[in-house]
Write a structure and sequence with these properties.
6-stranded mixed sheet; 48% strand; 116 residues; 4-stranded antiparallel sheet; single chain; 0% helix; mainly beta
Length: 116
């Protein structure tokens, strides 16, 4: 059974950093591309980043380029999203998803709140 469990969210001030984790089960992370998507309060899903199955190709939305970094630990089957220089507009629930450049949500997500 495929399961994706996001964690690591929290409340931070602008300029601070957070690293989100996505623990996958029921499949291997190196068998499929993976993506991060987010949903800000009152808004639709927004794609954030994708990583290919081999882990050597990464793509980011314009707002994430230079601030966010997607990575993974194959031995632990965990996907990460390191977020630096966070801004209030990054406030959202973040989800990890199977696939490349997807706009879906499967798990419960993890809430990131950026506020001074």
């Amino acid at each position: 059974q495929v399961q994706l469990v996001e964690s690591g969210g929290g409340s931070v001030q602008p300029g601070e950093s957070l690293t989100l984790s996505c623990t996958a089960s029921g499949f291997a992370l190196d068998s499929t591309p993976m993506s991060w998507v987010r949903q800000a309060p009152g808004k639709g899903l927004e794609w954030v980043s994708s990583i290919n199955s081999r882990g050597h190709v990464k793509q980011y939305a314009d707002f994430a380029t230079g601030r966010f970094t997607v990575s993974r630990d194959i031995s632990k089957n965990i996907l990460y999203l390191r977020m630096d220089s966070l801004k209030p507009e990054d406030t959202a629930v973040y989800y990890c998803e199977k696939g490349w450049n997807v706009l879906t949500r499967t798990g419960r997500g993890t809430l990131v709140t950026v506020s001074s």
